[in-house]
DNA sequence: TCTTGACATAAAGTTAGGTTTAGGATTTAT
DNA sequence: ATAAATCCTAAACCTAACTTTATGTCAAGA
């Protein structure tokens, strides 16, 4: 069992954030001893799920909905599974988008490296795709549709 | 040359967002004909860079700073290159985190698939890591530190 | 020429996800 | 037993990134 301060250190989250999550219903039925929250293994796993669902793009309200399904029991297994399947697809798509962003960044790093060598962008601005090093060309084409 | 409405369709961004970006200084020296904005190739590439830098985690203010560097000329090539190098590292780290999130989601999909087969979580809650299918075990271990 | 649709601005409003503040209660170390 | 650290709540506050509203200008087709 952990106090809110210990959990705060464990997850590197401000105490105020943990209290905010609780107020929003993300720890349904969390145990309290004379008013003080006691975080058990269940709440620790809940926090891991919160971080995961948040990063997958869900809002706090929707995460609360998920926690309510957990309280409702086995009848909501299909809903819960579907939620994770949906978020899995979202994250896969997001990783693809991030790889495109990464390719744009790679291209720009190369671009400014060249600009620094030349002292200007004259040569670069009249550059056609076929004149780029193959790795850079790949990145450029992937990031410019 | 594009009007704001055409750019809005091209990038699927609300017109109000484009005007907001302009107000924030993200299109320095954009051409105007009797008050009406004319978006050229330069502004189109600027928008690609804006989307890229935003997704890499930069705020509008910092993107404005970058656009100012572009106006200042060749003396800011090193700053610009460094910015892209930094954001490249950020995005690489972010993709790693997203892959961890993905592994958590994979595990949870499997978990609720099993729960649905069994009708309850009894078997799952007493499950040790070594009893999981290897692919799921990998995902579980990667997402639980 | 007149109407319609797209453009413009300034300023106020919105939203999510917290954070801070004010005022107490409780626990822990000395 | 007392002081310091940690806990509590309710409510006000904050910020970024837009969006909406009110009001007005411009351009192209009938």
Explain the overall architecture:
- The structure is a homodimer of 145-residue chains.
- The first copy, chain A, is mainly alpha-helical and 145 residues long.
- Chain A folds into two domains: 1-72, Multidrug-efflux Transporter Regulator, Chain: A, Domain 2, CATH 1.10.1660.10; 90-145.
- Chain A is 70% helix and 4% strand.
- Chain A contains seven helices and two strands, in the order ααββααααα.
- Chain A has helices at residues 4-11, 15-23, 41-55, 60-72, 77-118, 122-125, 134-143; strands spanning 31-33, 36-38.
- In chain A, strands 1-2 form a two-stranded antiparallel sheet.
- In chain A, strand 1 and strand 2 form a beta hairpin.
- The first copy, chain A, starts with a helix and ends with a helix.
- Chains A and B meet through helix 3 and helix 5 of A and helix 3 and helix 5 of B.
- Chain A binds a DNA duplex (30 and 30 nucleotides) through helix 2.
Précis, in short:
By secondary structure, chain A is mostly helical. Helix content of chain A is 70%, strand content 4%.
